Amino acid sequence: MLIAGIFFFLFGMVIGSFLNVCITRIPEDVSIILPGSRCPKCGGAIKFYDNVPVFAWLWLRGKCRACDAPISAMYPLVELATGLLFVAAFLEYGITQAAVKWLFFTCFIIVLTITDLRVRLLPDLVTWPGFAAGLVLSAFVPPSDGFARSLSWRLLHQRLQPHAAGLVDGILGAAFGSFLLWGLAAGYKFVRKREGMGLGDVKMMAMVGAFVGLRGTFWTILLGSLLGSVIGLSVVAGLYLSGWKRGLAERGSRRGLGTANALRWTIASQYQLPLGTFLGIGALAIVYLGPVIGAD
Questions:
Q1: Which site among 1, 35, 138, 150 is 20 to 30 Å from 27 CA-CA?
Q2: How far apart are alpha carbons 128 and 207 in whole angstroms?
Q3: Looking at the domain assignment, is residue 110 inside a domain?
């Protein structure tokens, strides 16, 4: 168990290094294969011994060897998080088909979560392949709710075969998640007369639903929305209390647009956090902490 756990951790960190490449290059429409790893500042190629996950960042003290430019802490954090999640998958599912399914899911979610946090984008190059992979893998490792088999028995008085049931569960989860978010986005735009959610979130939930099924999709949206609301309100309050955009609010107040405090609150409340990031955190919580939080 110890040796296997160490292997999963090291393997996860290596995969995390590749996920960093996807996170930084896919939004810029750059190949994730070529060229090799390079410093984003000077463009110099990174030597293989300076490309060891986590440890290279530590011994370089977070700087490029060639130009001394700072290297974002995102890189070692993503590698470390991926390694830890790979260990969690091993401890939860062992060396099984289920572990393979959730390792793929974890990789897709990490890329989407961090990309949305960095550049407010959920790339189709990740969501659509993730959606297809979710349906295929659910046919072999069905979501835990088994809703499709229960529904087929009630409607058709016959049980679906496991592969068919898993596929239908994935389709139902994808349809529920995507249409629910699409409806919420349309309702928000109708009421507030502005965009509140992009179609990227809708596509992401189609991918998540294909993996986790109907029940998992419901819990993902619930947890992600709750987490986003709590953190969002905290950020807005923090921006207001810190005096963010105070000068802009005071200039608006002098022009008769309202009191400075009211304008500061209005400006702070317009700050938008990426919903996809919180949905991703919720999805990972469902997979790895489902029994603990009562979502399994």
A1: 138
A2: 7
A3: no
**Amino acid at residue number 11:** F
Biggest distance spanned by C-alpha atoms of the chain: 72
Other C-beta atoms lying within 10 Å of the C-beta of residue 275? 26
Cα 215 to chain centroid, rounded:
18
Q: Is the pLDDT of residue 232 over 60?
A: yes
Residues in the chain: 296
pLDDT one-digit tens code per residue, 163-213: 888 899 999 999 999 999 999 888 877 777 777 677 899 999 999 999 999
Q: How far apart are CA 222 and CA 293, in angstroms?
A: 12
Residue 108 lies in a domain: no
Residue 117 in tokens: 């946090």
Structure tokens of 63? Answer: 């700087």
Instruction: Work out the pLDDT band at 265, boundaries 50, 70, 90.
Output: confident
Domain residues for the domain of 83 are: 1-96
Q: Residue 172 domain-assigned?
A: no
In 39-70, which positions are buried (b, 16+ CB within 10 angstroms) versus exposed (e)? beeeeeebeeebeebbebbeeeeeebebeeee
Burial 213-243 (b: 16+ CB within 10 A, else e): bbbbbbbbbebbbebbeeebeeebeebbeee
Q: For residues 108 and 130, is the Cβ–Cβ distance under 8 A? A: yes
Question: Closest by alpha carbon to 122, among 79, 178, 84, 176?
Answer: 178
Structure tokens at 196: 């509140």
Residue 230 lies in a domain: no
The tens digit of pLDDT for each residue in 82-103 reads: 999 999 999 999 999 999 999 9
> Average pLDDT of the chain?
88
Residue owning tokens 């809708």: 202
